[in-house]
Specification:
The protein is mostly beta strands. It is built from 1 helix and 3 strands, in the order αβββ.
């Protein structure tokens, strides 16, 4: 998220711990699109 902020995005909600054990935060890009950035250590895309 810090890279997005450096590129002009606005942080709407800083990333923080979630109840499911990962992290999530929200930002708005310079074009006005809102994004959720999430990381889940339990998720394995190869399964």
């Amino acid at each position: 998220m810090s890279q997005a902020e450096s590129a002009g995005a606005s942080i709407l909600k800083a990333a923080e711990d979630t109840f499911w054990g990962g992290y999530a935060g929200y930002l708005q890009d310079p074009d006005g699109h809102m994004w959720e950035v999430a990381w889940n250590p339990q998720w394995n895309p190869e399964e």
